[in-house]
Write a structure and sequence with these properties.
Length: 185
């Protein structure tokens, strides 16, 4: 009787261990993604979501500033790029655009044939608060003289559904300019 019970107990332990190994193997395989190139499968590695979010947030911030501040002396192009920037931010960006428009900034660019470009120096991003500070240098090239400005803006990032106009699925909120001053050129 002891031999039979020991055999049954051993079989139960072996079967339980086999089932556990199979389940862990299936779970591990389901986490892997394979990409087919013809008939050859390649294992794709999944990146951590936190690292992706920080990179996408910085890319979104940089792209927004590119659309908002890179302006040639072409009214249609200015409307198009600033319009693209409006999809990436909330009403605070619209208020800044309207203030620039009321101060004649866009019409001054067109009338003086100025070309505005912005270069990102750095972006500080706090993942916990989702707050960013953008440091950049803006160049305004006119026929008569060139102007170099220091640009510092700040705001927050919120997640929103991805769309064609907002491929990162992020929205800049409470955006404001902290510094916009002339530099020695």
């Amino acid at each position: 009787m002891m031999t039979v019970l020991a055999t049954i107990g051993g079989c139960v332990i072996i079967c339980g261990f086999t089932v556990w190994c199979c389940l862990s193997l299936v779970t591990k395989e389901r986490e892997q993604i394979y990409i087919l190139d013809g008939d050859i499968p390649f294992l794709a590695e999944r990146a951590r979501l936190e690292a992706d979010f920080t990179m996408e947030a910085k890319a979104h911030i940089q792209l927004f500033h590119h659309y908002f501040f890179n302006l040639p002396p072409d009214n249609d192009y200015i409307k198009w790029t600033v319009g693209k920037a409006m999809y990436m931010a909330d009403g605070t960006a619209l208020k800044q655009k309207q203030a620039l428009d009321e101060n004649g900034f866009y019409s001054d660019i067109i009338s003086s044939s100025a070309v505005c470009t912005i270069m990102c120096d750095s972006i500080q991003f706090d993942e916990r608060e989702r707050k960013f500070t953008y440091y950049g240098t803006q160049l305004i090239k006119r026929r008569t003289r060139d102007l170099k400005r220091s640009m510092v803006t700040t705001g927050f990032i919120e997640s929103v559904p991805r769309t064609r106009n907002n491929p990162h699925g992020l929205m800049i909120t409470n955006w404001r300019t902290i510094e916009n001053k002339d530099l020695a050129y």
